[in-house]
Automatic annotation (TrEMBL):
Keyword Signal among UniProt keywords: yes
Pfam families: NMT1 (PF09084)
InterPro entries (UniProt xref): SsuA/THI5, TAT_signal
Keywords noted in UniProt: Signal
Positions of the SsuA/THI5-like domain: 76-262
Cleaved signal peptide residues: 1-22
Name of the protein described by the UniProt record: ABC-type nitrate/sulfonate/bicarbonate transport system substrate-binding protein
Organism listed in the record: Actinoplanes campanulatus
Length: 340
């Protein structure tokens, strides 16, 4: 159960070559009339994903999850789904856009993480840091969990809004650091800025001595930032399974909103304990929200259009693509006012 890390560039390498493989369905394909009922996926150390929460709550009905390892990289996770190593994956919507524009046959079906006033990603400096503004970041190092994903997009958006030129932005160095080590790297001054989110951010703030230079919530407000994707061929062969999965994730989102925070935390800790992977569950006590904006994970067009426009301006899209080419709410009954 190794933890995998890769930049988006690595995730995209050879994607056109694997498109044919994905079209064959990989090990996730089923015989005619027989839909897959076990979904292979990657998890996160010391955390509970919405898919895992849905499964534990019994919201996935006859669909089961099979954990094959952990990842800290959204781009790697969706690449694994594209090649058939897993059946679904989740990533920042901008990373999904970039992979789809390279020809990967994937569709986003439900939001699974987002940004709100209690669940956001901040970019933190030490209290005694000389960095006070975007311009001070030129020549400095920012620790992020992976390249080509959420933290990179937010950082470049911030730098551009603050007036830095493209050449100046290139001089701000993004360094891949495992999330569990990011705070330590900042305090040891191995990096100048640390991207911290969720429970890891709150644990760091509890220890004190740091403050945010910028946050994604300050920049963009509330929005769903990442989605779960399936390969298009998998969806065609297993539409009922996909519907069950999306419905379960949607119900888990709404359960987390309606349930007292203490009960949600207790459930997360229970899940981590039951799976027996010798993980530290201390970060779960800081859980506040999954941050998903849409009811039941319903995706809004702007949540992809924003990043299409941004990537297009940056010249990073392989071909023209529309938001509606990338996502679908057809499998989410919350989209039509239902409750799954």
């Amino acid at each position: 159960m190794t933890t995998r890390r890769s930049a988006l560039a690595a995730a995209l390498a050879g994607v056109l070559a694997v498109t044919t493989l994905a079209a064959c369905g990989g090990s996730g394909s089923a015989a005619a009339g027989d839909q897959v009922k076990e979904l292979r996926y990657q998890g996160n150390v010391g955390a509970v994903t919405l898919a895992e929460l849905a499964a534990d709550l019994g919201y996935l009905s006859d669909v089961k999850l099979k954990w094959i390892g952990n990842t800290i990289s959204g781009p790697q996770d969706i690449q694994a789904a594209t090649t058939g190593d897993t059946d679904f994956g989740g990533a920042f919507n901008g990373a999904i856009v970039k992979l789809a524009s390279s020809g990967a046959p994937i569709t986003a079906v439900v939001g699974y993480y987002g940004v709100d006033d209690v669940n956001f990603n901040g970019f933190y400096v030490l209290d005694d840091s000389p960095i006070k503004s975007a311009r001070d970041l030129i020549g400095k190092k920012i620790g992020v969990n992976t390249l080509g994903a959420h933290s990179e997009a937010i950082t470049k958006t911030y730098l551009a809004k603050e007036g830095l030129t493209d050449e100046e932005i290139k001089q701000v160095e993004l360094i891949v650091v495992p999330p569990v080590n990011t705070e330590q790297s900042l305090r040891a001054k191995q990096i100048d800025v640390a991207a911290l989110g969720g429970t890891l951010r709150d644990k760091a703030l509890e220890r004190g001595g740091i403050h945010p230079l910028y946050t994604d919530y300050d920049l963009l407000g509330k929005f769903t930032a990442g989605s779960y994707i399936f390969r298009d061929d998998f969806i065609r062969k297993n539409p009922d399974t996909v519907k069950t999965f999306v419905a379960g994730v949607g119900k888990a989102i709404e359960w987390s909103r309606a349930t007292p925070r203490e009960e949600v935390i207790a459930k997360l800790q229970e899940i981590i304990k039951k799976r027996g992977r010798e993980e530290d569950d201390s970060q779960t006590k800081f859980w506040k929200s999954y941050g998903v904006a849409g009811k039941g994970g319903v995706i809004e067009e702007r949540e992809f259009r924003t990043w299409i426009e941004w990537l297009d301006r940056a010249g990073e899209l392989k071909k023209d693509i529309k938001a509606t080419d990338i996502y679908s709410n057809d499998y989410n009954s919350f989209a039509t006012g239902g409750a799954a």
